[in-house]
Amino acid sequence: MKRLLIVVDMQNDFVNGALGTAEAVKTVPAVIKKIKNFDGDVIYTKDTHSEQYLSTLEGRHLPIQHCKKGTDGWRLVPEIEKLFLDMQCRGFEKQGFGAKQLPEWIEKTYPEGPEEIVLIGLCTDICVLTNAIMLKVFFPQTEITVDAACCAGVTPEGHANALAAMRTCQINIINA
């Protein structure tokens, strides 16, 4: 079975840094367990910004410097980073909400398409949502699943709204 787990932006700034939340902190053990027990390939994304972030369109709408490349906030949560190193997982830096290089990489890696793509990570209502919808567009015959227990939104309401929106777009939501 060709299954792919995409771990979205499990970075310090989203867990306990500039944009961290208590809900994000609570996801870390579940994310670690999911990575360790996943039967398939595991890849990850990293939100990546520069010193000029605040002058970008995103930065003007979210004026909080975060995930600046090379900083501690940009790094993955240490336990997760160690897992990825030990497992030799492939990572993708992204400068916006969606990892636009993912569809091409998936098409090259899985020429017949993966049977399932599972997404977990942060933030449900921004980057998880964006990537899930993007992958649904590129792979309409692939089951796209989001494990809600391994996600947290900017707010609990945002998390719930994003799960509802994805469900409407025929993305499987589990452990909600």
This entry's quaternary arrangement is: single chain
Question: Numbering strands along the chain, what is their spatial order in the largest sheet?
Answer: 3-2-1-4-5-6
How many E-type strands? Answer: 6
Number of helices in the DSSP assignment: 7
What overall form do the CA principal axes indicate?
globular
Helix content: 40-55%
The Rg value, from CA coordinates, equals: 15 Å
Biggest beta sheet attributes: 6 strands, parallel
One letter per element, helices H and strands E, the order comes to: EHHEHHEHEHEHE
The helix/strand class is alpha/beta
Unreliable spans are none
Average pLDDT for all residues: 96
Task: Offer a quick outline of the entry.
The chain has seven helices and six strands, in the order E-H-H-E-H-H-E-H-E-H-E-H-E. The chain has 176 residues and is of the alpha/beta class.
